[in-house]
Amino acid sequence: MDLPSDVPRMPAGDALMLRPWRLDDLHLVREAADDAYIPLITTVPAPYSHDEGVSFVERQWERTASGSGYPFVIARAEDDRPLGTVGLWVSEAPQGRATLGYWVVKSARGLGAASAALQAVSTWAFDGLRVPRLQLFIEPWNTASCRTAERAGYLREGLLRSWQQVGEERRDMYVYAMVGTENR
């Protein structure tokens, strides 16, 4: 599978744009670092420092350069204000699958940004990259994230017990998936 070497810019619905990370997105990293949950499930630094924020952004660039994935910033189209991120991780693309993850900072939640971004990246993965299967892993208590996945067309396939380390403990995860042959 021949994958692009850059994170593309693309619309996500009518009001959002997906784009690569930039150093002027540090305020997004800072807000995410103050969230009680985002740093537990991501590499967002907590506590935040300028140097750790820069390292976080540089890691996003490295993920694309190394071929492991495509981290997008979810930004408002009207003013480029960053709201969160969605990532497509392609290390299993040779086996016909890729994993997505997303988060939106608290000040931007409830606006449908994650769902629109997830739909846009999923369409790109199926149509542009020809990945046959996309999957997400969501903790059962996270009903907002489950609704986001379902609004984007993902189906819950099952419960993976003790699937992932989150903070100090192993946690169950729902697996959600979409396959390229399904109506999107």
Automatic annotation (TrEMBL):
Gene3D superfamilies: 3.40.630.30. It holds the Pfam family Acetyltransf_3. Signal peptide: none annotated. Residues 16-181 form the N-acetyltransferase domain. GO terms for molecular function: protein N-terminal-serine acetyltransferase activity; protein-N-terminal-alanine acetyltransferase activity. One of its GO terms (cellular component) is cytoplasm. Keywords: Transferase. This is RimJ/RimL family protein N-acetyltransferase.
